[in-house]
Amino acid sequence: MPDDKVKRRLTTVLCADVYGYSRLMEADEAGTLEALRRSRAAIARLSSAMTAAS
User: Fold this and answer.
1) Of all residues in the chain, what percent are helix, strand and coil, respectively (each to 5)?
2) Nearest to 14 by CA among 38, 52, 46, 49
3) pLDDT band at 3 (very low <50, low <70, confident <90, very high)
């Protein structure tokens, strides 16, 4: 086993909560879902940029 090479990599896990989600959905379901979509897209872009930089 000492000759075996192990490839390792760092991983980050993001867990997010939407403050007031039920209230937001009740007030404007379509707008809330669109805001969540935009937020997820921004997080994905930032994550990709960080991955590319490493």
Assistant:
1) 60, 0, 40
2) 46
3) low
